[in-house]
Amino acid sequence: MNRYPLWKNLMILGIVLLGVILALPNVFPQDPSIEVSAARRAEMTAGSADEIRAALENAKVPFKRIDTLDNGKLLVRFTSSGDQLRGQEAIEGTLSERYRSALTLSTDLPGWVRALGLKPMTLGLDLRGGVYVLIDVDMEAAVDQALERYVEEIRTQLRDAKVRYTTVSRLQHQVVVKFADAQAREAGYQIIAKEFGDLKLENVDQGGDYLITLAMTPMQEKQLKDFALQQNVTTLRNRVNALGVAEPNIARQGERRIVVQLPGAQDPGRLKEILGATATLEYRLVDTEHSVADAEAGKVPAASRLYRDRDGRPVLLKRRVIVTGDQITDAASGFDPQSGTPMVTVALDAPGGRRMFDMTTENVGKPMAVVFIENRTITKQVDGKPVKQTQKVEEVISVATIREPFGRRFQTTGLDSSEEAHNLALLLRAGALAAPIQIVEERTVGPSLGQDNIDQGMMSVTIGFLAVVVFMGVYYSWFGMVANVVLLLNLVLIVAIMGLLGATLTMPGIAGMVLTIGMAVDANVLIFERMREEIRNGNTPQACIAAGYDKALSAIIDGNVTTLIAAVVLFSFGTGPIKGFAVTLTVGLIASMFTAITCSRAMINWIWGGKRLKSLPV
Amino acid sequence: MREIKIPYIDYMAQRWKALYFSGALILITFVSLAIQGLNFGLDFTGGTVIELGYQEPVETAEVSKALEGVGLTGVTVQYFGSNRDILLRIPPSGETSNAALSQKVFDTLAAAAGGKVEMRRVEFVGPQVGEELTEQGGLAVLYSVFGILIYVALRFEWRFSVGAVAATVHDAIIVLGVFSIFQLDFDLNVLASVLTVVGYSLNDTIVIFDRVRENFRKVRKGTPLQIMNQSVNETMSRTIITAGTVFLVVIALYLFGGETLRGFSLALLVGLISGTWSTIYIASNVAILLGVSPANLAVPKKEGEGAGAQV
Predict the structure, then answer these.
(1) Taking a contact as any Cβ pair under 8 Å apart, which residues of chain A between 411 and 450 contact chain B?
(2) Where does residue A120 fall: left (phi above 0), alpha (psi -120 to 50 degrees), or beta otherwise?
(3) Which of A201, A276, B10, B81 has its CA 20 to 30 A from that of A343?
């Protein structure tokens, strides 16, 4: 007789129930919403919701309701995306000083579903609209920068220890320290080995010169790159947060890439302006001992460099950097209480603060400059082919006199407008990038296209599903209906597992789902065809059921495993959209094996298994 | 019990003709690939694609003219789904950054259309990324073929394995051929779809091989060719029904999935037909040509109980 033991039935029932519950949040509609948060130096108060309600009512924009989120932000729900956009205009128009608003999609879950901690599947940017940006981090530049720092530090160390050296310079991936004689090199080696023992040190005699070369070990280089990437991710996150987008996603991808995903972002131009402000900052002393005119004529002193300010005027600065942008921990714009002019308050980290204090103590009354270093990508034609080059643009954005020694906190005053102060603060605070970046891929999907994609996706899933259901019902009668129930279950389980994995549903993902529907019935087709063969061979109905399942099993498993191999390869090689497709395909294959083999058997066993049958409804 | 009566056909009798037919198709594909290649989409070439939605029908010529008016030449303008949706393709250049470029295009066209236009999608892929995607795509196909080769060799036998992979490669080539001959846009989605075809075609092949394996063990009489024929016939109803259901959903995807998925679903449709064909005439054929026979399949110890009851 065809019976499943109780534990097996219970287990199947348990999994099915769990699947239904996990898939449940996806049933509820997604509201176009606006997430409202406090602007800088403002706070959300108990009255915030009322203010926003009043603003919306004033503008006659209908909305569903205003929810308070866990993090104190407010969520305004609308029934249509048209209302949502007008709502944002209304809020931005009247309350933009105190609140930031970001467009988002939010599922309207009843309280008890939310209490269970269930969340719907995340929709990909192609379905909800948004901006996707892939950023390449220039690792070679990160290494170069690190070597430059070594050059600077070795010079300082040797000078402090009064060891005479000829030059310290960077040569490709090495730092080369040149000495006049062997004794000096021996003394120098002691110093350098003490401070930079973890680097690869070598004594080299070359054409009468006594050299020490320093190079990073592969391990150090890897660590450095890792750190550069990590810092860039952090910096970009800070910058993106300044945009006020709901649920931004910034993650590293591979060894030198960063993915930025901004769902519902409306203005890709602004995003790229912020991201593309691939800037670093340096505080340097102004060289007041030498004449700028001489420097312009080509006689730049060895310890100085000629810069230009935004208007193109030359400024002569010391080569030694006091602090760099990555040492800035905070910056805020405000007004100088004495003069009433705009100013920026800057805070540094501890080492930066110490260094700043030392430098300013020695140089009271002298001017100090902030250099803004930006990497712009330009394309040049080389031999008829476009070649991308990163060009470093260095500009002096402010020169200010050191009035008194200061350390970790100080003010920059003398700015032209509060706008300028605000921008400077934003740039300072956003932190510096450890290495220059470049946008190598960008995809923006408008909200209306996203909605179209959802509609078309749902449409094709529904139609494909119905077509298969009708066909199976007609061709395999009652057993066909079992296959249909199982197919529906399969869809539920896919949705549940996707939600559990936190996977994102994309348009190709929907395509994968549609395809899974088509292919999932294959297992049942195989089983039912086997049963029919067994019936033709004249076996008893119950024996046919058992034989149908047993004999079809190897074909089902082998077939699915080979497809699974293709899906896994797709997943590991694919990016973005392809990954989404591979995930749904993989999940679908696994779910369909479970449902088509185990669940359908359980149903058939339960309905027909214990009975004396004359024929099978297949 | 509804059933389509499927006549018993000596499929293998036509195997040489079928092989020549497939060979001819592959030859045509190669010629087309050599002459005109694939019409690689943005994902592989790099560049910018902008999709615009107009409130009223618009002429592509007008759009081109408006763009040329501001010095934007070399932009391909085409309809995307309807005569109100416009797709612009801008080859990788780079004088201006992408943000500035797409904004300039949009502003120009918005001015020309009196503001009745909406930016639906902007995609920019740098040339470097394009190269990587091409490389990764090629590797993905290679690795999946290898993985499958090994799995099938383990579960069956190397002759089956070669047959299955030959059929799979055949299908991939045919899909590429259709995209090359008709110069359809070959983008990442289509590549994914080619890999799915690989998966589907294999699934189909494995089911028949599974039956062949079973019959080799069970049926003592008959040449390998006859057993192959018998197996193909026994599984034919399943082949038709499964192909039918997948066909139904892929048609649904093609008709209702929207313009973005059109290439994807078309590749699936082609692959579906080719996959069914290749299962019979390439996979089985190659296995036969390589001299597959019952003796190749080491009979596992377990076999006695299962088949014993039947014989």
Answers:
(1) 438-446, 448-449
(2) beta
(3) A276
Q: Higher-confidence residue: B31 or A52?
A: B31
Q: Is the model more confident about B120 or about B179?
A: B179
For residue B184 the two structure tokens come to 């359809």
How confident is the model over A511-532, as a mean pLDDT?
Answer: 84
For residue range B25-78, list pLDDT tens digits in order.
999 999 999 999 888 888 888 888 888 888 888 888 888 888 888 877 778 888
Q: Which H or E run contains A447? A: helix A447-501
> b/e per residue, A451-462, with b = 16+ CB within 10 A?
bbbbebbebbbe
Count Cβ–Cβ pairs < 8 Å, chain A vs chain B.
256
Q: Give the chain A residue whose CA is nearest to the CA of B192.
A: A578
Task: List the single residue in B with minimal CA-CA distance to A560.
Answer: B203
Thinking of the domain A6-25+446-609, which architecture would CATH place it in? Up-down Bundle (1.20)
Cβ-contact A357, A271 below 8 angstroms: no
Query: What residue ranges do the domains of chain B occupy?
Result: 11-40+129-302, 47-125
Helices and strands, number each (H, E), in chain A: 17, 22
Q: What is the mean pLDDT of chain B?
A: 82
Q: Does A533 touch chain B (CB under 8 A)?
A: yes
Where along chain A do its domains lie?
6-25+446-609, 29-108, 140-218, 279-432
Three-class secondary structure assignment of A581-612 = HHHHHHHHHHHHHHHHHHHHHHHHHHHHHCCC
Q: Is A140 on the interface with B (CB under 8 A)?
A: no
Question: Is the full-model pTM beyond 0.90?
Answer: no
pLDDT band at A267 (very low <50, low <70, confident <90, very high): low
Nearest CA in chain A to B204: A559
Contact yes or no for B125 and A555 at CB 8 A:
no
The ipTM value here is 0.81
Query: Hey, are the CB atoms on B92 and A386 less than 8 Å from each other?
Result: yes
**pLDDT tens-digit profile of A76-89?**
898 887 788 788 77
| Residues across chain B | 311
Q: pLDDT tier at B304 (50, 70, 90 boundaries)? A: very low
CATH number of A279-432: 3.30.1360.200
Per CATH, B11-40+129-302 and B47-125 having the same topology is answered no
Q: Which strands make up the sheet holding A74-77, listed edge to edge? A: A65-68, A74-77, A30-38, A99-107
Return the CATH architecture of domain A29-108: 2-Layer Sandwich (3.30)
Is there a common fold for A6-25+446-609 and A279-432? Answer: no
Express each pLDDT in A55-77 by its tens digit.
888 888 888 888 888 777 888 89
Residues 48-107 of chain B with CB under 8 A from chain A are 51, 53, 92-95, 97-99, 102-103
The radius of gyration computed from the CA coordinates of chain B, to the nearest angstrom, equals: 25
CATH code for the part of the protein at A140-218? 3.30.1360
Q: What is the CATH number of domain B11-40+129-302?
A: 1.20.1640.10
Residue B170: pLDDT band (50, 70, 90) is: very high
